[in-house]
Amino acid sequence: MSTQEEQANIGKVLCFLQEWDRGDRTVRSRMLNTFLTQNTGKTCYELELEFAQVASLFLARLTTWMRLTYMFGTALGLQLKAIGIFLSASSHDQYLMEFLEDGGVLTLLDIVNHSQSKEEHKAEALRLLLSVSQAGRKCKEIICESHGVKVIAEFLATSKTDETHETAGMLLDSLSHGNPKYQEHIYRALIALVTCSSPQVQQLVLCILRTVQLKLKTAHPSIIEPLLNLLRSLHPEVQDQALRLILDLRCCDVKAMLLTGLVALLRPFREEVQQITQGAELIMMTGSLPVFVQQAAAAKAIRLLAEKDEELSCELLSFGVIRQLLHAMGNREHVDAQIQASLALEHFVRTFPATEAHVQRVMGSALFAAFMTKAETLYMHIDEMQAEILLSNRFDTSQADWTMSVPPS
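The structure assignment produced for this chain is given below.
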């Protein structure tokens, strides 16, 4: 570009900036629409050519105007998209640093946290925060230092749209990588999010939580209760992710708490079972009472854990798992609980032969024969009297040292 052309371009840019400075909301909105049309997808080099090497002056004006007007929603969507052009431009480090220095991260978080902000504006602000987070460790730390994790987590727990759920989840996931200073903080926030009411958010959070948990050497005890409560979910995708996380935790320091919690779920508290009559409408709608869905899921988790680790099987025996599995098999109110409990018990009986005679004594010879033939269909052979025997069984876990009963490999 010749000197004359450069001078002409500088004059054009100065006129543009003067028009911006003097313009009202209508003028600036028109200018932003033109900017978006002409500059979407441009690189940092191309933007500098367009703005005579002073594109940063326009970015600073944009950031300032957004900070002053976001609470009123003044052309906020256009402002966010325009800033996005700068932050998405290749080789955009210069723009990013200037945006950070001007307090851009705090403004974006304020937009997400502002109750009057439109959902689409919050989603756009989250996308810009994701761009910032993906720029490296220092940028992640700036977001976290600005209470970003709290803002994002609270938004994720209350948002109602799939798009914003996904974007907020991607942002939390991004912040959890390459950010050791705040990894524990993000981990605790994810655990708190598990208790939210949205199945989609629960599934999303569990996926991220599994990734974070695998990086940590220990698990926080506070993860156990909300995780076990998720086993009540009537959504298969949530159940699946919860079971996967339970399997991941088998090697962590919360193992004993996890195992005792799962065994306890096989025998719901009397007060919870009394919900059957009170929850007739729920049963009619779903075909299940959540406490029985949880019972079935706990039995499945116990089987999966025991199949993966012989040492875990021994620990579960010491926690009285056989007595509780027999109890769950007697629950004729929920077939899946009977099936999952039967399959889990079959594993223990075949792995620890010394338990066989004691289980047969509780079941009776005929029912035990059906159990050993095909455990998953045993529920079809259990009548009311047999169910009552299973429910009230007094299987004594001290009868033998089951751990000595493992057949030689």
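Interim note for the steering committee: The chain has 26 helices and no strands. The radius of gyration is 30 Å.
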